[in-house]
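Recall from the previous chapter that SMILES is a line notation for molecules. Here it describes coenzyme A.
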Amino acid sequence: MYKVSQPQKNKLNLYYNNDIIGYIVITISKNSEIIINTIYIYEKHRKCGHLKSIWPLLEIELFKSNGNGTIWLIAKELYEYYGKLVRLYESLGFSVDINKEEKCKYVGEYMYRYVYMRKEPN
Ligand SMILES: CC(C)(COP(=O)(O)OP(=O)(O)OC[C@H]1O[C@@H](n2cnc3c(N)ncnc32)[C@H](O)[C@@H]1OP(=O)(O)O)[C@@H](O)C(=O)NCCC(=O)NCCS
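With both inputs in hand, we obtain:
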């Protein structure tokens, strides 16, 4: 069973069967938009589809905290896995914002694509 904590200092913890499996960090802007700064599933809990399964609950919490404003995130996608992270976020209902140019950036030796994505309330 999935559970999402109430936001504490902009951080929401994610649980599966009472185990903490990850967290997200958000900022709420003045115009009630939510920016997801970090989405993190702990390594041993990845590849089980947890993000996709917990998303509907998480989304309810997020829209509760911002009164149904837009949710934004920047997909920081490893270039060598081109498209995988963006497709994962699209499967949660996010769309690439075509008005914001994507950027490529090296972090250490790895090249990342930064893609702006947004989600409106259903
Ligand atoms: C992104 C994340 C939350 C997804 O967790 P999850 O639901 O367990 O999904 P997975 O880890 O199985 O990832 C799904 C797919 O996206 C790929 N992927 C994950 N992170 C990626 C990244 N940063 N860049 C490119 N591809 C990525 C995985 O390789 C996987 O591909 P596969 O289906 O071919 O195996 C988790 O991978 C994570 O915490 N990663 C580290 C932090 C991070 O990169 N956060 C995103 C920053 S915006």
